[in-house]
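Example 3.
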Amino acid sequence: NAGVTQTPKFQVLKTGQSMTLQCAQDMNHEYMSWYRQDPGMGLRLIHYSVGAGITDQGEVPNGYNVSRSTTEDFPLRLLSAAPSQTSVYFCASSYSDGGGNAETQYFGPGTRLLVL
Amino acid sequence: RKEVEQDPGPFNVPEGATVAFNCTYSNSASQSFFWYRQDCRKEPKLLMSVYSSGNEDGRFTAQLNRASQYISLLIRDSKLSDSATYLCVVNPNNLFFGTGTRLTVIP
């Protein structure tokens, strides 16, 4: 098992550019999520998905889009990058309990994004 | 009010010391509680779940106090390898992470 994989590891963007951060998991987890981690702010939930075809907003969704066409993949799209989106992005996956809530999360290695 | 609040530290302790971290949460409906460990420039990894009755894993003990809405982590006989940031995590529906408490164990 590769677990949770993320690409790219590092990315530099100019303001206004768009890009997609890739995330894949091979553990057949229903629940997948994207977080950003900023100094002093901890991990904040951007978007999450409880299964293929289902996505929902987290705490800080503005400026990001997601889709979940398969169980394995959960890409995060930045529509028009801004310097405020400079951060470390983590994708995570887990089983969900009977109520669609996340259980123990397994994290990918992260993507470090710098927006100039 | 933040969902989860932690003392950011840093905690600098000598090898062999006992150190305790506390964390408070705001949502009384929270069902699951965890401690994660994050090494510098790495992803968070689960350290241990926290159960209502308290639980122990080697040198690590986690406690939950639902009445006061806090969880704690106790590390006994600290090792150099315990140096990391410890994240308190609470799950009322999605996972909410604390900002983390940084621990440095000094030789």
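Chain B is about 0% helix and 55% strand. Chain B has a mean pLDDT of 92.
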